[in-house]
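Good morning,

Attaching, inline, the backbone tokens for the sequence recovery test we're adding to the shared suite. The designed sequence is right after.
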């Protein structure tokens, strides 16, 4: 246990201060990100600002509400995300305008925002600009940030995310082909595949810098599409119950104690209700982690679960998975020569490893149950990942060695009951020997 505490302390403070991952990402991606369409940190910032403004407006007095309605703060032609007028101004439709009017009167209603996004998608004839799809994604995400985590809000968030990725690719394809249109006057440009187009980067033909960046952004977007290919289907299959973030606030330790021991209340019924909320929340986070712009609200949700019961391992495991998803995207950016993403990689991995250690603390090595096995097996995989990518992640060998030793301990607990982990155990033992010999 002491060794785990030491590793947690070391990695939570290594090469970054608290919150280093977010600061590093914000400090670089907002100013030098060569892939502006995929600057999810900037999109997250817009979502958070709009959500905060909506909450303030919902708490405001009647006079203040009327003043903001009569003289809106953002009254230019672009519109605002708060009242969704930004979509109403882009899509000239009576049905869309009617929904925007309802949102303007009650900006906190998530149901109307879902209806709005669906209405705009129905109006889409394929000729709308990329900015429209970006705004759609923001409007869909606002419903989650407001706390309404339902099958409808999660599904529409996933659909708009995938739609946005598709539009990035089609926009770049169109722009790149326009350059060649003079040479391809009699050719149907639609029949030219994206793969044929992005392979041009490997040709001897000299490309301009903006063309190279467009092709790289298309490649990165295609990879994100692969990761989200089954997102819609998985959401429908796993999210069957609605929840609200307020439900998690009711699970605070004080409320839990009062509920379990107050008067004649049925402790088993209360416990089952709490477990149900935990299960459906974890299912929602599994979907949220696959949509980059929802990561901040995912971290907030698992934080509330961690506060609910300090003995639960799964909320810490879910936090670690969120950080690893963020790391995966950062890694892809670096592979595509976006070196502004590199400074965020180490602190993001450090956050993940600290969360994994907290999950390990709450798991049994002596008699691992089903949930414990998940934590132990996943940590073993991550420990070898740290060894394989230690240079890319800029990790010190002594730190990686401690992670590997903990990974071996996890596998030592798993192997006696399941020989499938034996190969992984040998792999880690070999890695430990290599680090000790050459490190």
């Amino acid at each position: 246990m002491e060794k785990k505490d030491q590793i947690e302390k070391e990695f939570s403070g290594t090469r970054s201060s608290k919150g280093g991952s977010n600061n590093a990402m914000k400090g670089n991606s907002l100013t030098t990100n060569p892939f502006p369409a995929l600057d999810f940190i900037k999109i997250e910032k817009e979502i958070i600002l709009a959500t905060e403004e909506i909450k303030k407006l919902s708490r405001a007095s009647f006079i203040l509400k009327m003043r903001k309605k009569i003289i809106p703060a953002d009254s230019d032609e672009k519109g605002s995300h708060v009242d969704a007028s930004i979509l109403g101004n882009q899509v000239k439709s009576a049905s869309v305008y009617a929904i925007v009017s309802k949102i303007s009167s009650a900006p906190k209603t998530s149901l109307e925002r879902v209806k709005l996004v669906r209405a705009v998608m129905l109006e889409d004839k394929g000729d709308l600009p990329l900015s429209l799809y970006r705004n759609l994604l923001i409007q869909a995400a606002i419903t989650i940030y407001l706390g309404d985590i339902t099958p409808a809000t999660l599904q529409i968030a996933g659909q708009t995310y995938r739609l946005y990725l598709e539009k990035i690719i089609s926009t770049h394809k169109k722009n790149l082909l326009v350059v060649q249109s003079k040479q391809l006057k009699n050719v149907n440009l639609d029949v030219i595949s994206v793969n044929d187009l992005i392979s041009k980067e490997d040709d001897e033909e000299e490309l301009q810098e903006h063309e190279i960046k467009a092709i790289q952004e298309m490649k990165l977007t295609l990879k994100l599409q692969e990761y989200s290919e089954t997102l819609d289907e998985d959401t429908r299959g796993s999210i069957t119950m609605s929840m609200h973030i307020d439900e998690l606030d009711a699970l605070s330790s004080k409320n839990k104690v009062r509920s379990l021991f107050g008067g004649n209340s049925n402790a088993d019924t209360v416990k089952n209700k709490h477990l149900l909320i935990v299960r459906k929340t974890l299912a929602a986070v599994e979907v949220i982690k696959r949509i980059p712009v929802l990561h901040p609200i995912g971290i907030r949700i698992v934080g509330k679960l961690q506060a609910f019961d300090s003995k639960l391992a799964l909320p810490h495991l879910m936090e670690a998975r969120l950080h690893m998803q963020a790391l995966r995207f950062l890694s892809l950016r670096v592979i595509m020569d976006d070196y502004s993403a590199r400074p965020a990689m180490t602190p993001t991995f450090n956050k993940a490893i600290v969360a994994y250690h907290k999950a390990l603390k709450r798991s049994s090595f002596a008699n691992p149950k089903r949930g414990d096995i998940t934590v132990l097996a996943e940590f073993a995989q991550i420990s070898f990942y740290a060894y394989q990518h230690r240079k890319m992640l800029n990790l010190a060998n002594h730190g990686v060695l401690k992670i590997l030793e903990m990974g071996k301990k996890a596998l030592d607990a798993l192997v006696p009951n399941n020989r499938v982990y034996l190969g992984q155990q040998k792999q880690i033992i070999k890695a430990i020997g290599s680090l000790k010999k050459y490190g």
